[in-house]
Amino acid sequence: MNRVLVANRGEIALRIIRACRERGLETVAVCSELDAAGPHAMAADRAVTIGPAPATESYLRVDRILEAARATGADAIHPGYGFLAESAAFAEACTAAGVTFIGPPAGAIRLMGSKIAARELMQSAGVPVVPGETPSDQSDRGVLSAVTKVGCPALIKAAAGGGGKGMRVATVLAQAPELIAAARREAQSAFGDGTLYVEKLVARPRHVEIQVFADDHGHVVHLFERECSAQRRHQKVLEESPSPALSERVRQAMGEAAVAAARAAGYRNAGTVEFLLEGDGDSARFHFLEMNTRLQVEHPVTEALTGRDLVHAQLAVAAGEPLPWTQDAIARRGHAIECRVYAEDPSSGFLPQAGSLLVYREPSGPGIRVDSGVVEGAEVPVQYDPLIAKLIVHAETRTDAIARARAALKQFPILGVRTNIAFLLNLLDDPEFRAGRLHTRSIDERLAQLVPQPPDPPTHVLEFVAATNFSQKWEKFVAATPDPWQTLRGWR
Length: 492
Fold this sequence. Notes:
There is one protein chain. The chain is an alpha+beta fold. It has three domains: 3-102, Rossmann fold (3-Layer(aba) Sandwich); 131-200, ATP-grasp fold, A domain (Dna Ligase, domain 1, 2-Layer Sandwich), CATH 3.30.1490.20; 206-450, ATP-grasp fold, B domain (D-amino Acid Aminotransferase, Chain A, domain 1, 2-Layer Sandwich). The protein is built from 18 helices and 23 strands. Helix 4 packs antiparallel against helix 5 (106-113) and helix 7 packs across helix 8. The radius of gyration is 23 Å and the shape is globular. The two termini are 20 Å apart.
């Protein structure tokens, strides 16, 4: 493996490009016309524009990505996360084209992408699952029969689902027919697959996931857990590790279950096994939720906690090398927190924002890491996910990590678009969060207490923005020739 094409954009593309450079690998960026001069395109050794701004015409075009690989001589492709990262068809197309897919085998992606097949596999492997039914009769009547057997409250879920799409809660049986039809419509629209199954609703669970890694030499390890219960409408807001809910006994049992799940799936490379957790301490019970067959957005939490570089390991395993660490060699130290900084307006229902980043200054200091895909003056587009940056902090204790995260967010000025930074600060100050008592519905239930009302910007801030905006426009006007420091690709 000598040249890696990164089939993604934004902060994850930059993260992969940096790791490739550290391993002496050349990189190729693919980009939409909108991203042609973006940070990830400029950071790579080569860049290929593959289509217009909409992802369906660029980042989701398998044919154009493979053509870019052929044209540039790339012998490997890293999909990052999102877009085509969990597409079994894309992994198969890469293999058929003679290009190494830096991720799990297509068979494992397809197997774990079906919630029904994954659930049945986990049961056979002895991994605990939520009580439920996977009806072979997929008519509305067949799914209703499954709801009746499971009993209410029940979750009606899309087999190909994720992110809460194609999912409905039936609190009483009389609601079920209407909810089944709604779940099927949404699943068909979102995933092209209306297959449904039913699970018993777990009241106020935590969402705890285990990072796993496997190679081609029979080694499978876990790198401990990430607590992901801080969610809004099933979308993660903040992640941390260790989980304040786990005892050492339950932590070990979950790690062993995650390794068993990866082995059962014939897994390779980085993956995450997600669990629902009921209760705290030694009495807590966990149930398999799903497996994400890719690198996670929140992987820096694990890197900070363990000191292990997951992207380096992905590249090594894809090249046929054994895992660079054994289970006994993986230890954790301190506490890590990741805050997702989005261009969105919490006071307007978290409406995604777009516009120019008039001011963008990242915090720095001991124990602070920022993974971002933007620069000051860049445009935040409407066509893609509004994630601006991920703030990752590490400290000796959870209390210190929370304090470090708060201090860093307060030193993270972003002007030009509204962000969720004030919301994140409120969450970090929340008594339930500080006590480690959040469950997956906590934020939704207490949203009014967490969403800040935006104050009018002070006059001096408006004056600063106006001056900065004028300065940027003036610099563009007087620039007779491009700045080589800004235009040379992959300069080393």
